[in-house]
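Why do we care about 3D structure at all? Because function follows from shape, and shape follows, mostly, from sequence. That is the central idea of this module. The next example makes it concrete: a single protein chain, its amino acid sequence, and then its structure expressed as tokens.
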Amino acid sequence: MQATPPVGVTTAPEQTALPGSSVHPSVGNETLCEVASVAAGRTISSSLYNLDLAPTKKEGRRWTSYSIFTLWANDVHSLGNYAFAIGLFSLGLGGWQILVALGIGAVLLFTLLTFSGFMGQKTGVPFPVMSRISFGIRGAQLASLVRGAVAIAWFGIQTYLASVVLRVMLVAMFPGLKNMDANSILGLSTLGWIAFVSLWIVQLVIVSFGMEMIRKYEAFAGPIILATMLAIAIWVFAEAGGAIQWSGIKGLEGGEMWRTIFAGGALWVSIYGTFVLNFCDFTRSSVSRKSIVRGNFWGIPINMLLFGAIVVIMAGGQYKINGKIIESPSDIVQSIPNTLFLVLACLALLILTIAVNLMANFVAPVYALTNLLPKHLNFRKAAWVSGTIGLIILPWNLYNNPLVIVYFLGGLGALLGPLFGVVMADYWLLRRGKVNILDLYTDHPSGTYFYKRGVNPRAIAAMVPAAVVAVLIAFLPALEAAAPFAWFFGAGIGALCYYLLADKNQRHSDVSGEPIAVVSNH
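And the structure:
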């Protein structure tokens, strides 16, 4: 996050400030906390506060409706989402049925993400700090690290998938490179390593310049992605002679059809189970609540219906052409006979994948690591640590191992619903949006969010049974019919358990974080 220090912290005029911050490295975290403590009139802990974790000032925020819209313009049109939606066609849903399934998911997501976004806009804090409200100043590490672990793994996997597209593009441009794609070094060819490391470096360089660069990249990528996907859909439609397979290929009817539709809508929400947690990482710099509502409206229900229409045309058109069901738009791109158009389409897919990775799989672990070691890590350093972990886990081996994807990443993903349920129930139902932001940064035992040694045992007690139920529903063969709804069961049970266990007699105060806030430059 790009930020300026609280009043009283200055930089030496003869020295240059770090990119992403106006504070010189000579200004240590302890000094920042001393200044913040004076401003706040209470002790601010250096183990809980630094420039990237500090709340953002209300004045100077830059995330507008368009900024939020472009987040969704990129993320909704990710290759993974296309693979999922086209999979609904494989399950037997026809055109209108796919649109209904995505529409149901879009309405739910608009509601969930809007309320989640409001939390960030009001408090100005990132998700790890937001988690301190319900889990405690130390217990919040659980929520942020679970979210971060899932994101780091998917960052590596998405970078690998993008490198596959880059390899296709390079071989199309320079056929002689095909020989470099035939060997194997730790599971990747020489060309594969070159492509992966190149994309890895590009992403780390972008993130090194903070959230402002991410905002600009998302704004740049959004229109390109929309135009490219529309162009591919139009090309497929023309190749199919202006006809598509509109009805389901399996002829689903009645109860079975509606079960599949609602399951598709539920899974669509589950895909965003990560994002509904840490959407505040972005909306903490939103200019107003209205900007969140407008950005979400155009970016979620409207954009998702456009996405659904493109999916129906791509999948139905390709099926009409040769009777085959594609897995993702990359299958279509590889079949483009014109080298120039193939290269341009590959470039667009690379721009897309990087945009999705930056917002969905990079920001969360960066804030999680910064929250873990605020004295030693800032946004830039945490980005390099996160990216390095994403490299050394050799993510292509994870992607090629179904057991890892299903049981490890799926198991961690099943925990996200209970986390969301606890956080939302605590913030909206119990506190009614009242937060003492200053106490989120103090480790004094009298602090509102100190609970018991920094951990709220009631939040943990609520999360455990919800997590157990969610994992069982997700993995037990006997509960296969309910598996698509595992996220909802986890979130609902987590929220209900926490509401029943929480101390409802506790009085909540609303205290602004402006005294210790930093000016947002993004």
